[in-house]
Input
Amino acid sequence: MTLPLLLFFVFGAVAVAAALLMIFVRQPIHSALCLVLVMISLAALYLLQGAEFIAAVQVIVYAGAIMVLFVFVIMLLNAGNEERTNFSKMAKYIGLPLSILMTAGIAIWVARAGSVLASPQHAPDTAEPTRELSQLLFHTYLFPFEATSILVLIAIIGALVLAKRDS
Amino acid sequence: MNAVPVSYYLVLSAILFGLGVVAFVFKRNIITIFMAIELMLNAVNLAFVTFDRMRGGPHDGWVFVFFVIVVAAAEAAVGLAIVITVVHNRQTLNVERMNLLKF
Output
């Protein structure tokens, strides 16, 4: 077993285990910490695939900023144990089989598609992928990039307006 | 350098997406449901990075991952503001009690 394969299995197992744990724990704060673990192991997997910049953004923006926002809101709202209500029967008896069926369907389908297309057309890997990414981001995708800044501005204003208490 | 087959990553991505769907359906806490959405977005990002590696050419896939992360950040900010407002009005985090629009 080569080292990349070993690393893949280690981080993949950590990601799946943390995602399962996120479903089974009852405290929202524990779920949030499990999700941070999932995101960090995904960042390691990105690094394994050569996407250094995306791995850094994953850790800084996702595991850093977004999850801090989640933890902040959980603490602000003082969210304790999840209430056990009479679990809607529909979720239990229809939702779970359908979710499992969908997961299995997607997994089988992409595994088959992946084995068909498995051999990557080894185009010469550029020496500086991050430089290439910045070229794409600021030349080819310049307009979407600027539109994103408007989106973030709208999100800031929307969050402020929504969260403001009426006095 | 990279000996891991592409399909392994895709299956892992599918499994994480499925776990996100299960969490979305099963959790009763509105904040945890939001986290399930983030988990699904992460699974899709993994698939994007994998397909980008498979394609080999210019790294357009990374740009899409970047945009997904930005949109997820915007969504989390607005969504959590909505959650705060709802919880102040209804005094509960349980989605089964947020039923004012239910017929």
